[in-house]
Inverse folding.
């Protein structure tokens, strides 16, 4: 080893870069751990081979693309998206084109979208996005005993929160619309959506945004991105760590009546990784008529906006589509029934903000949620 080092030392210090010298040094250690020492007359030739191989190793290191955190944002579904991901490649154009394709499937504001054609009975054809959303919706409907229901679309429209103009609501109107509400009246047959009644319409707003988050997260996974945060209109999915090498920091808003989001305040900060988060509440999307507040969460059981002490709920789940749908269902059910469902699902955690006494908030959460809360925020 010493003899070899004596013969190679001049060649070693002739190397132009520190990284190449390091490569040679590492190679020498590895090589002489497993190889017999060459004879003296062959050592110089041996050194040249070592230097050349080290150069190849260094070149391969240099050719590895440098990953950095990239931030991108844009508009989709009438809201803003924010994303941060560690990658050697800017995926902004791919992200936007993927979201646009999804929008043409599930947007009730595009007349030519898959869901819009189904709603006006112009087509029964579905695509892969629609089928995934619909199948998950059926699953969540069953898990929540009917509290999650995509067929509330005509009710949402009637109350002024949907994709068509608000009607003057009457009790007889709601009773009539309720005949067209029920997930048991729609099913997929040979990739076509079959309705029991022509008046049935689907509203994907409480689940599609969460699935769009999953679609982009899956895109990152396919591109080998290990650390990312995908957020669309407040629904998000994260993996790995943020640029500071810690779990992603996420704020849970206080349920302040603030439709324009001009006075946003945080109730809690959590640190999460490898999980999805969705929040639902009635403190932003509402209107006041005749001195009465009408919230956007419509009960598929009664046909009327919900009215109870639950102001907002944040749900953690493995995928954002599930978190999104469960959060909406929990706003329908209220705290006690929702907590019972969370307790039955080991992969769900939830954080509830209730209307307490003297204008105070009452906080309740599932046992597993506490581990995500960051103290002293």
């Amino acid at each position: 080893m010493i003899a070899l080092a004596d013969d190679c030392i001049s060649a070693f210090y002739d190397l132009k870069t520190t990284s190449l010298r390091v490569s040679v040094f590492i190679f020498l250690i590895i090589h002489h751990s497993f190889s017999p020492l060459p004879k003296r007359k062959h050592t110089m030739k041996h050194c040249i081979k070592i230097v050349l191989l080290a150069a190849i190793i260094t070149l391969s290191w240099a050719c590895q693309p440098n990953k950095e955190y990239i931030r991108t944002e844009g508009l989709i579904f009438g809201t803003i998206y924010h994303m941060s991901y560690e990658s050697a490649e800017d995926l902004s154009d791919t992200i936007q084109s993927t979201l646009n394709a999804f929008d043409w499937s599930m947007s009730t504001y595009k007349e030519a979208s898959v869901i819009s054609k189904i709603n006006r009975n112009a087509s029964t054809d579905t695509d892969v996005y629609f089928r995934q959303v619909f199948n998950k919706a059926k699953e969540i409907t069953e898990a929540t005993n009917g509290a999650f229901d995509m067929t509330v679309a005509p009710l949402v429209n009637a109350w002024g929160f949907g994709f068509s103009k608000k009607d003057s609501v009457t009790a007889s109107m709601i009773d009539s619309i309720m005949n067209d509400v029920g997930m048991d009246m729609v099913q997929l047959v040979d990739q076509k959506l079959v309705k029991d009644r022509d008046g049935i319409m689907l509203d994907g707003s409480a689940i599609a945004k969460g699935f769009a988050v999953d679609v982009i997260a899956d895109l990152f996974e396919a591109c080998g991105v290990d650390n990312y945060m995908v957020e669309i209109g407040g629904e998000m999915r994260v993996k790995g760590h943020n640029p500071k090498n810690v779990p992603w920091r996420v704020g849970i808003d206080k349920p302040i009546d603030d439709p324009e989001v001009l006075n946003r305040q945080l109730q809690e900060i959590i640190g999460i990784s490898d999980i999805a988060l969705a929040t639902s509440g009635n403190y932003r999307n509402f209107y006041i008529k005749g001195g009465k507040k009408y919230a956007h969460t419509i009960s598929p059981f009664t046909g009327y906006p919900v009215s109870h002490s639950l102001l907002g709920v944040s749900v953690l789940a493995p995928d954002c589509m599930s978190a999104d749908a469960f959060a909406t269902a929990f706003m329908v059910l209220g705290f006690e029934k929702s907590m019972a469902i969370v307790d039955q699902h080991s992969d769900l955690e939830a954080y509830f903000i209730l209307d307490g006494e003297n204008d105070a908030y009452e906080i309740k959460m599932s046992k597993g949620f506490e581990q995500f809360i960051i103290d002293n925020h």
Remarks:
- The mean pLDDT is 83.
